[in-house]
# Entry
Amino acid sequence: MASKKEKTPKRQTSASAVIENAGIVLEQQITETLEKNYMPYAMSVIISRAIPEIDGFKPSHRKLLYTMYKMGLLTGSRTKSANIVGQTMRLNPHGDAAIYETMVRLSRGYEALLHPYIDSKGNFGKAYSRDMAYAASRYTEAKLEAICNELFADIDKDTVDFIDNYDNSMKEPTLLPVTYPSVLVNANVGIAVGMASSICPFNLAEVCQTTIELMKNPDHDISSTLTAPDFPGGGYIIYDKNELDRIYETGRGSIKVRSRYNIDKQNNCIEITEIPPTTTIEAIMDKVVEHIKSGKIREIADMRDETDLSGLKITIDLKRGVDPEKLMQKLFKITPLEDAYSCNFNVLIGSSPVVMGVRQLLNEWIAFRQECVKRRIYFDLTKKKEKLHLLKGLAKILLDIDKAVKIVRETEEEREVIPNLMIGFGIDEIQAEFVAEIKLRHLNREYILKRTDEISELEKDIAEMQLILSDVKRIRAIIQDELKNVIKKYSAPRKSLIYYKTEDEDSEPEEDIPDYAVNLFFTREGYFKKITPLSLRMGGEHKLKEGDEITQSIEVSNNCDILFFTDKCQVYKTRACDFDDTKASVLGDYIPAKLGMDDGENAIYMVATSDYAGNMLFFFENGKGAKVPLSSYQTKTKRKKLISAYSDKSKLTAIYHITEDGEYMLTSSNNRVLITNSALIAPKTTKDTQGVAVMTLKTNTFLASVLPFKDGMLLNARRFMTKNIPAAGSFPRPEDKGEQQLTFSNKLKSAPSTYSLTRPRFFGLYAKALYDYPQNHYYCMVQIFIYSLI
# Structure
């Protein structure tokens, strides 16, 4: 008989497993929340992560280098990077990935530092490329560079403070006792919470020499010995004395760095071999490609990244006839081949972030180094005093060695040896311990005499050290000697050369724009064409959208500027050379899309100019007219869009670009006609001026059309002319139309259906036809006259 299955007992949970205050909403002031929860994090990032200290290192750098020093990698051979990362985790709890990335940035292979701290083997990537990634830590090896001797010199002599690591299992230094101002020698960039630090690198020899001169003379002119920053990637420093002086004094400013290049005339190409530290090969190439696609760069045939084991190289193939120097000047303006390095010398001084200039920073380092030297001397002084004390006890034994041997032999218990020696020779316990530990073979007169001869030398050394500790000048002399030794061992020529700009280069260079005659066409629907005269002669009819028509046709030069006025009181500026040559058989460029106009915005008028001569003439439905010099739309900067191009107080009726004043025929919505000269309208430099009243209008009427007046448009034109504005104008009479007015009146029967539109629109269409086809003025005026009688 099968046995019954026993029920599985229910799992019992302890009441203590309940989360305290779970589900309870606590109301708290946001300021209190930030203070309790966010401030500790912010302070931790500032003090323990992102901002370097006076020794030039962030905590992650210091922990890594100290671990490698304790592993014996300063004098030993390389070891696997994974081994170093694992050992460093005893000090750095932020994970192996962060530790290895720190190692990469400090390595020689990465090429981000003027004087790397880590001698690397394997693929450590490159600072100048975002695509050249470093290999995993299991494939690479590393050890400390020789210059790290200057980081750990006398670190075992109590030169700096030590603290417990995060789990209190070992000690680590709070700072490294660097013998030179490494804080200015290697670049250091960090982003904290609410602040950041960006320290540019300087040449090692220049920094050390400047420090020496500053210790000799606190008012030393820093720029006389510290020429300019020196970047590991080389390039040219665009020298700006005012900006450098500002950086030296305040710690804030920016430095322009320009790429270095060679021109290969034989292969008609440019080879770029050094780039600014703030960019990468890929960023430069992406920007150049972007400008090629937009048409801003037309001189480049091809561009390649030819970087290899020998170093960085970007090759640019040129089109035939291109001036490489002019092209490079253009590329410097619009690509990262010339870039600015922003400086913000933010350093932790006593756990507080302080932004300071080079002078103050070096003075802080000098004070720090003086303290290190004092502590080292005091440490050595203490050791020598202890040794002197022991040797003085040994000297007393020298007076009677046999007595000492006898005391030891006759003492029955080991613990009584020390007290008996103390009583027998009048020495203290420490001296007695030292004597008791002497080996039997050393109990001879020769050994003891040699040791006691050291007493006089020790006394001299102790006196010398006490003098040094009491004299700041002698301490500074020691620091200066150390700096001279660093220069002798590790100095190297500058990598970044100084480039002094000429006055001609400071001015905006003229672009090399092909200059030839072109015809510009602009349609009512906003389409634009640029056609060469030869193409225009060989082409057929213009291709237009259904219902569209060409409203403007201008013959100009290819290097002129073009202004497009819109119905939203704005003007967009461009150049004729920005448009490709086209043919009459294509629609052309749609201007609102080409220039990125706002939704619902349309271009209504085009102006082409090379010298911005003449005036813009605006007429508004309220009867006012405004004259604005075209030069008011000229800007020194390359702004593409200008707002408030004309007044928005009343709807625009007509717009013209004039080079000289002339007569204009204004027609109101109730068919009054006024002929006036534009010279009566005074020019205003304010673009959005409301202008002056030109035509007096009655209630519920408006200015319907404005056309340049031509002879023959009206037979009795003098009746409509005025010498003063504003004026009301007059209604046309039958005799103003001429004798042939009835000859063409029957043509009204075949008029298009568009004539059935509103009265102002109807009149405007006929007035425009009259302007375009003055030979048909009789026909047009008959139609206007008949319409006015309806």
The radius of gyration is 44 Å.
